[in-house]
Amino acid sequence: MREFAFTITYDRGADHLMDVFIDHPGLYARTVSCQATTETMWRLDEVTGPREALAVYDDRLANLSRCSSLRGMGGCSIDWTYETIAERPTRRLIYSRQSEGDGCRSVPYLAAKHLEDGVLCRAEQHGHEYRWRLLAEDDVAVRSIYDELGANLRDGLALEFERVGDSTDWPDDLAERSNLPYKQREALELAVEYGYYDDPRRMSIQEIADEEGIPTSTLQYRLTRAEAWLARTFVSTDTGDPVVQAMATTADD
């Protein structure tokens, strides 16, 4: 099995929903599950980020559900419905059903068309990028997906194709960063950015907190929680659904 990546880069204004990710860099979405035929796609997405960004995201979803002029990557009309399955202050779990009209369709539909039953797919949305990753056996058929989508991509979008290689690094849900509450993930990212884990250590927790204008005790608490999550994730043998469980049991601070 080989992994392939299709990265679609959106200009601001090209897509109403992607504009929310562009305007709020802390917002991140990834598929928990995705099933597609040549006609219809069903998917479950987890979206994480600051409360204010998610509030904008919620409003945009509600507006899009009432819109009759939605267009896919290749310009097809879209019939789309959604439901918020779970909601936390810094997380959402979104179920959606989408059908695209005649013409060139988006990545999962093209995968179903060219690869039939022989493909797994998942997606991430962050900033300007919407990245689809496919796990498949047929290199030639995957290239056909790129050729068809690239020839019909609508204005304001750019496409990159990458043959990542063997499937050994196919993401493990237990280690997905979106399972970590946003504020704790942010604390962990700050610690890495400022060299807290470097040897020798470049900055202390107090110095990072002062630099970012965060109370030292707050940053320490969030970082400790994040480190505990990393440790539990590393040694976990839980066979349940990590996303739904995390949303039900993990604090957002």
Q: How would you characterize the overall build of this protein?
A:
- By secondary structure, the chain is α+β, with helices and mostly antiparallel strands.
- The protein folds into two domains: 2-165, no CATH class; 174-249, no CATH class.
- The chain is 37% helix and 29% strand.
- It has eight helices and eight strands; from the N terminus they run E-H-E-E-H-E-E-H-E-E-H-E-H-H-H-H.
- The chain has helices spanning 16-23, 51-65, 107-115, 139-152, 182-193, 205-212, 216-235, 242-249; strands spanning 2-10, 28-36, 40-48, 78-88, 91-100, 119-126, 129-136, 157-166.
- It has an eight-stranded antiparallel beta sheet with strand order 4-5-3-2-6-7-1-8.
- Helix 1 packs antiparallel against helix 2, helix 3 crosses helix 4 and helix 5 crosses helix 7.
- The protein is globular.
- The model is unreliable at 242-249 (pLDDT under 50).
- It comes from Natronobacterium texcoconense.
- Residues 3-170 form the HVO-2928 N-terminal domain.
- InterPro entries: HTH_bacterioopsin, HVO_2928_N, RNA_pol_sigma_r3/r4-like, WH-like_DNA-bd_sf.
- This is HTH DNA binding domain-containing protein.
- Residues 183-230 form the HTH bat-type domain.
The coarse silhouette is: globular
Helicity level, as a percent range?
Answer: 25-40%
Percentage of residues in DSSP E strands: 25-35%
Order of helices and strands: EHEEHEEHEEHEHHHH
Poorly predicted parts? 242-249
Biggest sheet strand order reads 4-5-3-2-6-7-1-8
Main β sheet profile: 8 strands, antiparallel
What does the average pLDDT come to?
82
Structural class determined from secondary elements:
alpha+beta
Pfam families: HTH_10, HVO_2928_N
Keywords: Transcription, Transcription regulation
Protein name: HTH DNA binding domain-containing protein
Organism: Natronobacterium texcoconense
